[in-house]
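Dock adenosine-5'-diphosphate; give full complex structure.
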Amino acid sequence: MPTEFDLIRLFFTRPAPGAVLGVGDDAALLCPTTGMELAVTTDMLLLGRHFLADVDPRLLGHKTLAVNLSDLAAMGATPRWATLALALPEVDETWLTGFSRGFLELAARFGVDLVGGDTTRGPLNLCVTLLGEIPSGLALRRDGARAGDEIWVSGQLGGAALGLHHLRAAVPLTRGEAMACRARLHSPEPRVDLGLALRGLARGAIDVSDGFAADLGHILERSGVGAEVAFSRLPAHPAVQARLDDALARQCLLAGGDDYELCFTAPTGVGREVEAAASRVGVRVTRVGRITSEPGLRILDEDGRAMHLESLGYDHFA
Ligand code: ADP
Ligand code: MG
């Protein structure tokens, strides 16, 4: 039977070239780059609430880090160091092999060193703290939006939520759609490179983890502004787009979580630069609306009339 220390050594001890000292001592030692601010974020994933027991451990390892990377992406930070706190009900080496592989592969892709953590017995619970760096004053903050800014969204929205509804058998999808939506749900791609490319261009930013309307709402609240968004411009995932006459699909688009795209605002004059920056990193961005001085979020139909958020299923998730 492997001890806690065997597990840490086998599955979570890797070289940490970006740290002074990594796993193995009472604390890790890190040396931040001169002139940079540290960005620190923590996200916890609980069995039953954030993932189901039968999920592929490798995908779960990926997602556990990806949701934290997404938070740093939304700040425009370069990810550097992570710690991982794990509660495990039992020692399942097959599960640990998959989980650590998914986690460490994504970490390696973004140059993140796993520098420490904690391992204990208990109901399955995964908690990552991720640290990144941003040149002083350049962070993309939720309170940075200004009236007149354009509102942009990366990638496509609603696919992950539709995938979850499909898993719960609430919606039939074609085989291809089901695979695409499940990939969005289980294997999100954090928009780290886009966040970096938007430094100095975007003003307000957030990652879409709880649903577009709610997350844009956080920017509006923190910035003391409002917004007008054209419903027809929202970049729906193709499986969502194909069912937009369905209330559930509209709800996925506006209120579905887990997409991990970026929603950000930028001054009108830099639209071309925003598009160029996004295309350099291979991510599609769509202009969906405008920040207003009048508070509140208004979703507009094709004729420019405000739609009722309730009729779009928004209240279910608010
Ligand atoms: P302590 O008793 O000082 O808390 P631990 O025995 O918990 O130390 O951990 C030993 C070392 O292993 C520490 O450097 C800790 O950061 C690291 N560690 C523990 N669990 C993990 C994990 N899941 N992933 C990465 N490092 C870990
Ligand atoms: Mg400990």
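Observed: Residues 72 and 254 are 23 Å apart (CA to CA).
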